[in-house]
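Form 7-S
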Amino acid sequence: MILRVDRLETELPPPSDADPAGAAAAHDLRSKAGFAKAGRS
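Output:
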């Protein structure tokens, strides 16, 4: 049996300040990986 883990549950500390460039880069990577589809945010 193969167990596929799509998301690992982990707590991340809140960001100290907003990083628009980092958010844009993360969004781009998520969309390329297929995580930006409806219902999979």
